[in-house]
Amino acid sequence: MSKKKKLNLPTKEQILEVLANDKTIKSRRDLGRAFGIKGEMRTPFKLLLRGMSKQGLIGKISKNQSSSNILPSVSVLEIPKQANPEELYAYPLQWRGQEAEKPKIFLNFSKNTRVSPAAGDRILAKIKYENGQYSASPMKVLDKPRTNQIGIISLDDNGARLIPIDRKQKEMRISAADLNSAKNGDLVEVEVKITGRMMIPMAKVTNVVGNPQSEGAISLIALHNLEIPYIFPNSVIKQADEIIEITFDKAKEKKREDWLDIDFITIDPITAKDHDDAVFAKKDDDPNNNGGYLIYIAIADVAAYIKPNSALDKEAYLRGNSVYFPDKVVPMLPKRISNNLCSLIEGKNRPSMALKMQIDENGNIISHEFHRIMMRSRAKLSYQQAQNAIDGLSDEITEPLLESVIKPLYAAYDCMKKARQKRAPLDLDLPEKKIVLDENGIVKAVHTPERLEAHRLIEEMMIAANVCAATSLEQNKTALLYRVHDVPGREKLIALREFLASLKMSFSKSDSISPKDFNRTLKLAKKNNKSEQVNEMVLRSQAQAEYSPINYGHFGLNLDRYAHFTSPIRRYSDLIVHRALISVLKTGSVKQGEQHDLVIAGQHLSNTERRAMAAERETNDRLIAQFMSEKINSHFMGRIAGIVKSGLFVRLVDSGADGFVPASTLGSDYFRYIEDEQAMIGERTGEKFQLGDNVEVKLLEVAPMAGALRFEIISDGEFVAPLSKNRSRGRNNNSKRNHQRSRRKHT
Question: For the domain bounded by 629-746, which CATH number is listed?
Answer without folding.
Answer: 2.40.50.140
